[in-house]
Fold this protein.
Amino acid sequence: MLYFYKESEDATLKLYRVYGEYSEVTLPERIRGKEISEIAAYCFSDRERDVEEGVWLYDDAEGKKPVFVGSTKVQIPDRYHVLAGRYLEKVTLPATVRKIGDFCFYNCTKLYELSFHKNLENVGSDVFMNCMNLHRVCIYANEREKTVLRRVLSQIKWDVEVRFETEGKVTAALLYPEYVEGYNEIGPAHIFGLNITGEGVRARQCFADERVAFAEYDRIFEKACAEESNSVLWHMAFLRLYFPIELNEADAKAYADFLLKNESTGLSLLWKKRKHYLYRLPLHKKLAITKWMIREGYFTRETLEELIRYAGEKQWAEVAARCIEWRQTYLEDKDVKAGRYDFEEF
């Protein structure tokens, strides 16, 4: 990849623009031994920026020393594409990054996933403006640690799934539903009152000292059932049951009851609803989820038979074969004692 950057007073680097060959990018922690500590304003946005002074250019493919170019307005090799706007789809920030500048991902309309580490401390304003496809955020941290998640979520009003990952394994995950803000006129004096629709805004307030408050999150589910779609509710319930961090018995029952009453929703999200991000998961992850649902009793024989028929219609040989195998193992062999499935691939 090719990087434009400046060196800060503390000898760390501030990244201004990135070029590469692929739409999914994992930034390095260092360039020539110096840490990348900040992502500049508009770095990945579709807005053209010309930084006039103090800019260095480094091409990691050539392995040469960085070149002082003085401006970002230089000739770029044809093999590279600017990683910005509609071209960008997935970004992983390194553990060294502590700050993201204003409008950093402005108009990245195809960006669907962002990953960052617990070391991130400062998030600018309007960072995710018009990133309407950003439906997954991954944080490399323990779910009980302090992070900037609350501040990140305050800038994402649409549905977004948040995952906590440590040592290569997902340890917790939550869905934060969409919410909508609007203003209603009150009376003839043209006074306007803020109107917020959706439980997503309440879910985004479930924090204590910058840590996720899981019990508070669980308490919103009852009211969410009256306001949110079955797709959103199924996603919320599934994640809480699979990663039951601080989940009490009563809330677990409420989530389980919902899954049992809405099997068709889960089947549709995983295998039929093409535009949903659960459908777009890799095959091995969708199979892992399906196996867990069957094993735990949330997909019954009727639902499994429907999936087998559907897989046959779509000529998904592996899906059909695995489902037939699981039907024998979990629904027909009464002597099998089901232990908990280790969902490492999720």
User: Anything to note?
Assistant: The radius of gyration is 23 Å. The CA atoms of residues 234 and 266 lie 7 Å apart. The chain has ten helices and 19 strands. The chain has three domains: 1-126, 135-261, 265-346.
